[in-house]
Amino acid sequence: MLLSSADQKFQTEIRQSLTEMLSEELRSASHKRSSLWQDLESSMAWQRILNSKGWAAPDWPKEYGGTGWTLNQRYIFSKECVRAKAPALIPMSLRMCGPMLIGHGSAEQKAHYLPRILSGDDIWCQGYSEPGSGSDLASLSTMAVSDGDDYIVNGTKIWTSYAQHANMMFALVRTSKEGKQQQGISFLLIDMNTPGITVKPIINIAGAHELNQVFFDDVRVPKINRVAEENEGWTVAKYLLEFERFSMGSIELRRTLDRVEKLAAETVVDGKLLSNDVAFKQKFAALSIETMVLEASEQRVLSKLSAGKRPGAASSLQKLQHSELVQRADELGVDVLGYYAAPHQPEALDIGTNVVPVGPENGITFMPMYLSNRMKTIAGGSSEVLRNVAAKTILRL
Ligand SMILES: Cc1cc2nc3c(=O)[nH]c(=O)nc-3n(C[C@H](O)[C@H](O)[C@H](O)COP(=O)(O)OP(=O)(O)OC[C@H]3O[C@@H](n4cnc5c(N)ncnc54)[C@H](O)[C@@H]3O)c2cc1C
């Protein structure tokens, strides 16, 4: 990206600040991820440092704690964070719950929860999916029955990322069985410490504990914790999904491609450097070009956001591109490692720690990410479902 002199100055200042703000410990912690999310400790430590500078949520409107930076400045900031090896931030609070509350929360909910999201005092998880209700989310059956000023919630949520760490959940519940499925859904903010909630771990293919099943047994939730009107939760849910699907994935993807390139430049097969191999070069070039296309898609969504518009179906397309590219990039990394990928299968990992082990001599390993990222084409909307969205809303089929 060609930068104006003002943006170049901004970039230099950000680079300088990040150098001062990031300890060596935090930089090395940025590798501590075997799956979808950064490990919680380093992520929250970094979020608190960012928040002390007012930089925890650059995309939020300034009045709620955003930075007021331009679109380009936010993009530069994200790139510089990856370049400086900053730990990734957990999106459920900052990227999902926050924008949802800004768009649909009451004045009291915004005043109470938004500062607590920025500071990390509250950690949120997302209670949408249920056994049997994933892609067909509107069929969900966790019931919330009115009881005076409260709802009594019964049912279960599944694949709930980081529920074991969260003290709050934003959840979809059924408040009516009348009419169309979508019409009987409400949106609740649930305190995870309420009696009747049980969180059970689900260990993923890479041996990490990030997912859970959450059970609700006569859980009392005050009605003031409902977002929007009763039975109007589906509108809020759809709004939030647009934010969930959008990410600046190309930045992370570039980092993976850099690692693949570095590794290929150090790997000799049959006396030839792998980076000179035609088959490798073709695959690598295709991935690099498609990453540039992804960057352009991200810019499109960002420009909508900065004009105060919703991301719309563009965020579904961008998630589709990103998740499939990530899987191909990991696959190329595993191909390059060849035999050396094997020792990093889950059996060789310290089960449940979420920590990526050190790789072969050069410290590069792809196996845990390769395995974990299989879920990228499922979580937050599967590729098939996203293609359906594109067919319906963009191609009008
Ligand atoms: C790592 C991970 C983290 C997650 N975190 C969370 C979380 O924090 N909170 C939360 O609520 N949920 C979470 N999820 C759940 C996720 O949103 C669902 O897995 C996803 O929506 C798919 O639903 P499902 O698993 O029920 O699969 P299904 O909906 O049963 O889909 C099974 C298969 O059928 C295909 N399919 C389904 N419907 C159609 C259709 N109409 N046309 C064509 N093909 C179709 C799908 O593409 C898929 O291949 C997470 C999932 C993963 C993998």
Describe this structure in words.
The protein is an alpha+beta fold and 397 residues long. It folds into three domains: 5-89, no CATH class; 124-235, Beta Barrel (Butyryl-CoA Dehydrogenase, subunit A, domain 2), CATH 2.40.110.10; 246-394, Butyryl-CoA Dehydrogenase, subunit A, domain 3 (Up-down Bundle), CATH 1.20.140. The chain is 45% helix and 15% strand. The protein is built from twelve helices and ten strands. The protein has helices at 5-21, 24-29, 40-52, 71-83, 91-104, 107-119, 233-245, 249-266, 278-306, 313-337, 367-372, 383-394, and strands at residues 124-127, 143-147, 150-158, 168-174, 185-191, 197-203, 209-222, 226-227, 268-269, 272-273. A hairpin with a 5-residue loop joins strand 6 (197-203) and strand 7. Helix 1 (5-21) packs parallel to helix 4 (71-83) and helix 8 (249-266) packs antiparallel against helix 9. The two termini are 35 Å apart. The model is unreliable at 346-362 (pLDDT under 50). The structure holds flavin-adenine dinucleotide (FAD). Flavin-adenine dinucleotide binds next to strand 1 and helix 12.
